[in-house]
Amino acid sequence: MKFRTMGRHIRDAFKSLSRNGWMSVAAISAVAMTLILVGSFIAILFNVNKLASDVENDVSVRVFIDLAADESNKTTLKEQLEQIPNVESLSYSTRDEELNKLIGSYGDEFNLFGGDDNPLHDVYVLNTEVPEQTGEVAKAAEGLEYVSKVEYGGTTAEKLFDTIATMRLIGLVIIGGLLLIAVFLISNTIRITIFSRSTEIEIMRLVGAKNSYIRWPFLIEGAIIGFIGALIPTAILVFGYSFLFDIGTQYLIGSNFGLLAPLPFTMYLGLGLMGIGVSLGSIGSVLSMTRFLKA
Questions:
Q1: CA-CA distances (angstroms) from residue 264 to 63, 135, 198, 241?
Q2: What whole-number distance in Å separates Cα of residue 247 and Cα of residue 16?
Q3: Contact (Cβ atoms closer than 8 angstroms) between residue 63 and residue 126
Q4: Contacts for 280 with CB less than 8 Å, ≥ 6 apart
Q5: Where in this chain does the record put each ABC3 transporter permease C-terminal domain (predicted)?
Q6: At CA 59, angle to CA 55 and CA 63, rounded to 5?
Q7: Which 8-state DSSP code applies to residue 109?
Q8: Average of per-residue pLDDT across 143-156
Q9: Which of 72, 123, 217, 282 has its CA 20 to 30 Å from the CA of residue 257?
Q10: Beta strand pairing call for 123-128 and 87-93
Q11: Are the CB atoms for 68 and 122 separated by under 8 Å?
Q12: Burial (CB count within 10 angstroms: exposed 0-12, middle 13-18, buried 19+), residue 29
């Protein structure tokens, strides 16, 4: 297509938007409302995925060392634990460090158990290559000498992994469904615009205009509608996410979990919504024009 022809199509697209003011507003509103929902679910899904990853990374196998074990026994046990398949890293926490963590969590009343009265065990903390491997690693560690007990969450951890996987799947299905709804809404809204200009299109066809020539202005018009419609939800989500991030961060202070930082997440989200808006607008226009030109 020649640059001059493309320029004419762009001008025609803007003239059409201006002439069909209320129809254009309806189409832009349909895009904006749909993309607000899509953007919200995308933000929720990505943060659920982030929190899920934090939870998964926080799941570990805690191996409590028998009180009768001396330093040599502990060293031997460490070497045996490191040889267990799927163990990615290993750290050591003394019984005094474990008591300090308990005091930090539940209060100074646990100071009574300091020194020789400390009933806690030294602990090896194992992290696996994949969180779902914690059960296998725990079973392997239980059979080693000088191991008092092993904790990893058991069925609770396994249910957690299943729940996280289900939430991710549901999020993807919802986003996919919203995108299909967006195409349907935009397609039908633009189809109304096309029907309102059916006489104009018929005249173009009678004078010999090709379908591609007729289709291009509508495709560009749909892309413009999608782009403008994406600007509104982008602005709302950028400011709204920053506000909710500050609130969420206050609740998560002191934990190992966190939300995605507003930058660069909102920048990528905004660019993604604009790309989705332009794509949906173009697809909706093409679908509507194809059906009309075949009629």
A1: 39, 36, 45, 12
A2: 44
A3: yes
A4: 31, 34, 179, 182, 183, 186, 226
A5: 173-291
A6: 165
A7: G
A8: 78
A9: 123
A10: antiparallel
A11: no
A12: middle
Domain boundaries, the chain: 3-56+159-294, 60-152
Q: How confident is the model at residue 107 (pLDDT cuts 50, 70, 90)?
A: very low
pLDDT digits (tens, 9 = 90+) for 43-73: 888 887 777 777 666 677 888 898 888 889 9
Strands 61-65 and 87-93 turn out to be: unpaired
Contact present, 92 and 78 (Cβ < 8 Å): yes
- How far, CA to CA in Å, does 123 sit from each of 61, 138, 163, 236, 294? 10, 13, 29, 48, 73
**Pseudo-torsion of CA 171, 176, 182, 187, nearest 10°?**
-170
**Residues 142, 84: contact at Cβ < 8 Å?**
no
- Phi and psi angles of residue 62, each rounded to the nearest 5 degrees, phi first: -105, 115
Residue with tokens 């696996």: 128
- What distance in Å separates the CA atoms of residue 197 and residue 202, rounded to the nearest whole number? 9
CA 26, CA 30: separation in Å to the nearest integer?
6
CA distance 241 to 59: 28
Q: In the Cβ-directed half-sphere of 212, how many Cα atoms lie within 13 Å?
A: 3
Cα torsion angle, 22, 34, 181, 225, sign: positive
* pTM for the full predicted model: 0.62
Distance between alpha carbon 136 and the CA centroid of its chain, in Å? Answer: 29
Q: Residue length, the chain?
A: 295
Q: What CATH number has the domain spanning 60-152? A: 3.30.70.3040
Pull the structure tokens for residue 147. Answer: 């191991």
Among 123, 28, 146, which Cα is nearest to 76's?
146
